[in-house]
Amino acid sequence: MFKSLATTGKGEQTRQAIFDCALRLFRENDFDSTTMRDIADRSGVAVGAAYYYFSSKEAIIQAYYKVVQEEHKRRVAEALELRTLNLRERLQIAMQSKLDIVQEDRNLLGVVFRYTGEPNHPLSCLGPSTEELRRDSIDLFIYAIGSERLPKDLRLLLPVALWALQMGLLILLIYDNSPGQQRTRKVMEGALDLTMLLLGVAKNPLTKRLRVKIVRLLQENMLLPDFDPALSRPEKP
Amino acid sequence: MFKSLATTGKGEQTRQAIFDCALRLFRENDFDSTTMRDIADRSGVAVGAAYYYFSSKEAIIQAYYKVVQEEHKRRVAEALELRTLNLRERLQIAMQSKLDIVQEDRNLLGVVFRYTGEPNHPLSCLGPSTEELRRDSIDLFIYAIGSERLPKDLRLLLPVALWALQMGLLILLIYDNSPGQQRTRKVMEGALDLTMLLLGVAKNPLTKRLRVKIVRLLQENMLLPDFDPALSRPEKP
DNA sequence: CATCTTTTTTGAACATGTTCAATATTTTTC
DNA sequence: GAAAAATATTGAACATGTTCAAAAAAGATG
């Protein structure tokens, strides 16, 4: 009943060929100066075929981003299962590995953000159509946080905050022309230092009122994923 | 020596006609489904003329955003000069008036963010080509903060933080389908409350070390406008 | 295997952003 | 006011993302 099973059916093969060629071309030249005709030619198919597998040129980038996400999950799981690490180390791995994966494709990455401000666009990186990807991304941070002892509200807040930080770092990475994108790495380190520091402070009961204020503001305005009705999952089955 | 003086030369007149028609059409339908041919037809000129005045379709949106910015400056200046207000009130006016101006054009606004992730694009809202706009926007917050008594580092940090907050609120506004976009307004209020609260805390000398950490992190990585060499202005003439 | 159904592939046609050489108009110069 | 220079305008031509009816290939059914 599902599309393309394990065995690489003919269709899946073409899809992959188109995807691979497209990525190669995007990397050699760049997204905008690569035409769908280029992609089709290189893949040895007609333009129509490319559209049979990808609903638009940008959809190829979305497929790319899904691959990135999978690889990210894989790497984080691998690293965290290897040995026991403290929170700071775990978060660092989560952030770092994402940057590692994506670093060579800074130009492609930009396209992912192209419809940030257009909610109804199927590729809007904040829109409903990408909810699953987003959820996955946040879940990865939840996984990295693991069973770390944290006040309830912080447990709710931290993953989203880290996701937002990651988005910011991706943007920074795109603009970062320092050799090896060291600048972005440094900002990441610094931001994680600050995060740990703030977490320390936040555990202090004196900060309770402030925390409540923040969480309530976000919750009431549906800025925390669990509180978007469309997303809410049964909490106590 | 300058283009188009006070007297509306013929050219400026056409430009304005094209701009007006374009905006009207963008609002009636939307950005993407309005074609340059539509715009040209409605303005009673040939397509080429539209391109003589606007280097691209998106450039019309940039022009729109400049108008918004001007209007924003005007309103803030007007409101702040009317009577003496406290910091919270001043910041609120700065934020609020921006939302007021832009609210009816939530769909257009999205286009402003279209090249966020593409530094070299002339319309990249974080790129070098829009540096002036950004600077203006931050300056407006500096103006709103006025001569409020603040530690030096906060004086450096706050305007940028407010600018970032404003960008976030604009994105939120675009996604906000609550009646009258109340949700965005509430988040704004809440965010300003928190800002004031944090400012209060930050004035406490005990937070000095943390503040220094934050400022240094941003400065070292050129994330504060004054420290981008390309931007630096003589500070002590 | 013959037939029917589904999946895949094709490529011409279309829509629309953009360019540009040619033309017209306006402004400047003397 | 005529000639020259600068500015404005035209619209056909181009490039490229996308669509779609038709054809081909693969798979299912009997």
* Number of helices, where a helix is a run of at least 4 consecutive DSSP H or I residues of chain A: 10
Report the strand count of chain A: 0
- Integer-rounded radius of gyration of chain A: 20 Å
| Share in β-strands of chain A | under 5%
What is the structural class of chain A?
A: mainly alpha
Q: Uncertain segments of chain A of ≥5 residues (pLDDT<50)?
A: 1-7, 227-237
- What's the overall average pLDDT of chain A, rounded? 91
How far apart the termini of chain A lie comes to 29 Å
Helix content of chain A: 55-70%
Q: What is the H/E order of chain A? A: HHHHHHHHHH
Largest interface: pair, residues per side: A-B, 34 and 34 residues
Assembly status: homodimer
Largest sheet of chain A: none
Shape of chain A: elongated
Give a quick set of tags describing it.
homodimer; 237 residues; 10 helices; disordered C terminus; DNA-binding
Q: Can you summarize this structure?
A:
The structure is a homodimer of 237-residue chains. With 237 residues, the first copy, chain A, is mostly helical. Helices cover 66% and strands 0% of the residues of chain A.
Reconstruct the topology from this structure.
2 copies of one chain form a homodimer.
Chain A: H1 10-28, H2 36-43, H3 47-53, H4 57-82, H5 87-102, H6 106-112, H7 131-145, H8 152-175, H9 182-203, H10 208-220
Helix pairs in contact in A: 1-2, 2-3, 4-5, 4-6, 4-7, 5-7, 5-8, 5-9, 6-8, 7-8, 8-9
The structure holds a DNA duplex (30 and 30 nucleotides).
